[in-house]
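Ticket opened by: R.M.
Priority: normal
Category: complex prediction / small molecule

The reporter submitted a protein together with zinc ion and asked that the result be attached to this ticket for the collaborator who will pick it up next week. Submitted input follows.
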Amino acid sequence: MSTFDDLTNNFSRLPGIGKKSAVRIVNWLLKQDGAYVQKFAQNLGVLQERVRPCKVCGTWTESDTCPICSDPLRDSSIICVVEQPQDVSTIEAYGEFKGLYHVLGGLIKPLEGVGPAQLAIAPLLDRIRGGTVHEVIVATNPTVEGDTTALYLNKLIMELGVLPADGGRDKIKVTRLATGIPVGGDLEYIDKRTLSLSFRGRSEF
Ligand code: ZN
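Result attached by the on-call engineer:
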């Protein structure tokens, strides 16, 4: 297979890119500055080796602990639970949330065989047990799976029955984002204002 066809096949496998777009991209790359294309290829080559999940929250990072978890100015009393690392980027881009994150790595989908054991739920409970967490915001998408996962997390955290290690509130609060996000919608596609309102209007289960 020619390099052109091979690369077209590679691109057509990317999310949201069909065969036509893949051909367009390869044609476009052929006309770009050589240094840009070299750098692009180089980054792709080292991507999986350099970028890995943060040992604490699970978002992508190039060190053991991500810059958010390592930042002493972030509010460690609030953990925002999200489905995927890209949700961290979305919430960071809106810029008002100053707490920490926890990436589940998916949602509970019994029909697809994804149960709690396949998700980073146990490490979340460990963080809650051992830390200074006062509030857990469940920011999974408002889909059936997102709601099921949120309810399940609320139940588990309530069952833990732990008090925040540093005192304060009588029990840990579990909240869900307000319904500014369209039902069945995706965190990734909502605008900053809607996200901001969803955070401010969040409520306890
Ligand atoms: Zn982290």
